[in-house]
Write a structure and sequence with these properties.
Blueprint lengths: L6 E9 L3 E8 L5 E7 L7 H20 L17 H9 L8 E4 L6 H5 L10 H20 L3 E2 L8 E5 L5 E5 L6 E2 L18 H5 L6 H16 L10 H8 L8 E5 L2 E8 L10 H14 L4 H4 L2 E4 L4 E4 H10 L3 E6 L4 E6 L6 H12 L6 E4 L15 H4 L9 H6 L9 E5 L15 H6 L9 H42 L2 H28 L3 H4 L2 H49 L4 H7 L6 H63 L1 H7 L8 H15 L13 H16 L8
Parallel strand pairs: 13-16
Antiparallel strand pairs: 1-2, 2-3, 3-4, 5-8, 6-7, 9-10, 11-12, 13-14, 15-16
Catalytic activity: L-seryl-[I-kappa-B protein] + ATP = O-phospho-L-seryl-[I-kappa-B protein] + ADP + H(+)
Main location: cytoplasm
GO molecular function: ATP binding; IkappaB kinase activity
Length: about 725
């Protein structure tokens, strides 16, 4: 097969036992299509070839008729000007059958997605949800609208189309084994792909649309864990025998690594997956329904209020499962990932209570940090946990993080323990039972399936350890960014410096006026020494404290910027230097690992993990202290600004008392009078000291303002804790 006229052959999209799919591009119009061809039938007998032709024509019919749903690959009818190209395709097709022309999907298929090294332990939860949502919609449409049973569901038959905005649509294809399936019909042909067809297909040969529900469950398990659930390395007979023994709550069967004659019936997912804990729990319940060996229970109907009818329970339950929203959190000091289902009725107090329960952090010590670019810049009194949930941030796949201009953060919220005596927990590796068994020197095996499973467990442990340390560093980086942002945006340093300068200016001018008044021997008439001493003491104390506050802010800002440099350097190091050897392991060992190589890798991992944990803690811990200093300094600044406001009022009142004296003292003096200079200083003080609040004085008369100021000074002095910072 070669290019024809304006149609360029771009390559092969995939192939199976008897066919292949090719990719074509029209150089004039830009249209892209996929064409499905029978490749070789020489190994088939005459009856099998007849059956193949029947199925081929049936698939051609289905693809041309199903055009209404975006989650099903549609057939394409080319225009008249492309008639010669279609004739060329059909002429070169064996068996004198028409080539099937389909819409082109540019993202490969789900099998290829699962085969990527980073997905060896299953896909990210976001991808699992998206695929199941699209696949369920396609199946519901086939079953209810088209009365079609697909009968060959598997990851290979789910293709991916990436939209221009980067989002993906998953589409069901390959209707070669599809067959009309009205409710009353029981199908009786042995079809499907091993590991994906339901037990009744083999056991009785009689089945209905519930076989697609079983295949959906198998695919779902594989998406979540990277493997099919029922001893795939065993013979078909052993698989069927054990399937017929399994109870309704069993979702997987594994072989005992220490006893080849013993099979374990698993009721829970393995720990090696990338699903959030609360969603995995509900997902497991759904798997028990989809993977029930009794097709009657598997296919039972449930009331559907939306459509005022009945739908299969497997679909309605899955729909509810896909509506669950899970808020992801990383408690940095605890080295612990937290995951909670959030609803519209949940409050921040509810969330904080859960965090305290799971981390043992005191309620008053919980400190929230939102990742950069979070839609909510700050957490306010009206904020709810549901507001913190960002759906697109659920997609933490390596592909998305690499292809997105602004990669999603690893979690939606970071939590810190804001206390002097902060406790740092150990970053615990995800060690599976199989790793513990195989790391004992007396244990020996050369079974390929076991060594491959061991490699997958080792891969998960390496990946998660690196992720945890990256989250730890990212958390501190976000904390440093938050502190820097607050200092710069709120102009704390400029504000306190401005308050120092303007108050100093007004104070010095008042002092100059007082000196002039004393020389004229008129001051005592207006202002007594106690008034002046009160002002001097308050000014000197507040000015010294404010200078200290400014220095603290400058120190925190400088320190956080150093933390930003350090954490960025360490994060880049994980990517560039492959510290845990993850990239090398994915390249060389995912297919299986010898016990000798495995035990050597475990020793290296223990050393590397310990060293890396010490490094990231040493480099990041100062950020905790800087944040505490920042929190205290903000509180001290509020107190200082109140005192500056108080000083402003004292200067203002003394200014009024000295008005006549200052005016007379300035008579005959060349240049601006002391009164005029003081008025200018007071104007600057009033404008610059906007953070202060003199509302307490607004209703007071001149006669009692000094008494009120004295009481406030005494009260505020007890709150000053600058020296203890």
């Amino acid at each position: 097969m070669r290019s024809w006229d304006n149609w360029q052959l771009k390559g092969k999209l995939g192939q199976g036992g008897f066919g292949e799919v090719l990719h074509w591009l029209n150089s004039n119009t830009g249209q892209q299509i996929a064409t499905k061809h029978i490749k070789d039938v020489s190994s088939l007998g005459a009856d099998q070839q007849v059956k193949l032709k029947e199925r081929w024509m049936k698939e051609l019919e289905w693809t041309r008729s199903i055009q209404k749903l975006t989650n099903i690959v549609a057939g394409v009818c080319l225009k008249n000007e492309d008639a010669s190209f279609v004739a060329y395709l059909n002429k070169n097709h064996i068996c004198q059958l028409p080539v099937i022309i389909l819409e082109y999907c540019n993202g490969g298929d789900v099998r290829q997605l699962l085969q990527r090294p980073e997905n060896a332990n299953g896909l990210a939860e976001f991808e699992v949800r998206q695929i199941l949502r699209d696949l369920a919609q396609a199946l519901q449409f086939l079953h209810s609208e088209c009365k079609v049973c697909h009968r060959d569901l598997k990851p290979d038959n789910i293709v991916i189309h990436r939209q221009t905005d980067g989002s993906k649509t998953y589409k069901l294809t390959d209707f070669g084994l599809a067959r009309g399936a009205p409710d009353q019909t029981i199908l009786q042909s042995m079809v499907g792909t091993r590991h994906y067809f339901a037990p009744e297909v083999v056991d009785t040969g009689m089945y209905n649309t519930a076989v697609d529900y079983w295949s959906l469950g198998i695919i779902a398990y594989e998406l979540a864990t990277g493997e099919v659930p029922f001893i795939p390395h065993q013979t078909p007979r052993n698989i069927l025998v054990n399937l017929l023994k399994k109870t309704p709550d069993c979702i997987a069967i594994t072989e005992d690594p220490q006893d080849a004659n013993r099979f374990l019936f698993q009721t829970e997912l393995p720990n090696e997956h990338h699903l959030t804990e609360p969603w995995a729990k509900e997902f497991t319940m759904w798997l028990r329904l989809a993977l029930d060996t009794d097709y009657k229970r598997r296919g039972q109907l449930a009331s559907d209020e939306v459509h005022s009818g009945f739908v299969p329970l497997v679909f309605s339950t899955l729909d509810s499962l896909l509506q669950i929203r899970v808020l992801t959190i990383f408690a940095v000091n605890c080295f612990k990932r937290l995951e909670y289902v959030v609803t519209k009725d949940m409050t921040m107090q509810d969330l904080k209570a859960l965090i305290c329960q799971d981390t043992n952090i005191a309620k008053d010590d919980v400190y929230f940090v939102l990742p950069t670019y979070h839609p909510y810049e700050t957490i306010k009194p009206t904020t709810k946990p549901l507001d913190l949930y960002v759906e697109k941030w659920s997609d933490t796949s390596r592909e998305t993080r690499k292809s997105t201009e602004i990669p999603p953060p690893p979690v939606m919220l970071f939590v810190f323990q804001a206390t002097e005596n902060c406790v740092y927990d150990v970053c615990k590796p995800r060690v599976s039972k199989l790793i513990l068994i195989c790391n004992v020197s007396s244990f020996q095996t050369d079974k390929p399936w076991l060594l491959k499973r061991l490699a997958l467990d080792m891969h998960y442990m390496l990946m998660q350890q690196q992720k945890d340390l990256e989250m730890f560093l990212t958390g501190f980086r976000e904390l440093a960014l938050l502190v820097e942002h607050e200092i710069v945006t709120n102009q704390f340093i400029a504000a306190i410096n401005d308050a120092i300068l303007t108050t100093s200016d007004a104070y010095k001018m008042l002092q100059k006026l007082r000196t002039a008044a004393v020389e004229e021997k008129k001051f005592s008439i207006q202002v007594n020494d106690n008034d002046w001493k009160l002002l001097v003491n308050t000014y000197q104390e507040t000015n010294a404290s404010a200078i200290h506050i400014k220095e603290r802010f400058e120190s925190v800002l400088s320190g956080t910027r150093e933390i930003l440099k350090t954490t960025s350097r360490l994060l880049n190091r994980y990517v560039e230097s492959d510290v845990f050897g993850l990239a090398a392991f994915e390249r060389d060992s995912l297919g299986g690992i010898s016990l000798a190589h495995f035990r050597k890798a475990v020793k290296l991992f223990i050393t590397t993990s310990s060293d890396e944990e010490k490094l990231v803690k040493t480099e990041s811990k100062p950020c905790d202290k800087l944040n505490l200093l920042f929190i205290k300094t903000k509180g001290a600044m509020r107190t200082a600004m109140m005192k500056f406001s108080e000083i402003k009022e004292q200067i203002f009142q003394l200014h009024l008392k000295m008005l006549s004296t200052a005016a007379s003292a300035s008579i005959g003096i060349s240049g601006p009078s002391s009164m005029l200079l003081l008025n200018e200083s007071m104007g600057r003080l009033t404008m610059a000291n906007s953070m202060g609040d003199s509302s307490d004085f607004d209703s007071l008369t001149t006669n009692n303002v000094i008494d009120k100021a004295a009481r406030l000074i005494e009260m505020l002095r007890t709150d000053m804790e600058i020296d203890s910072l």
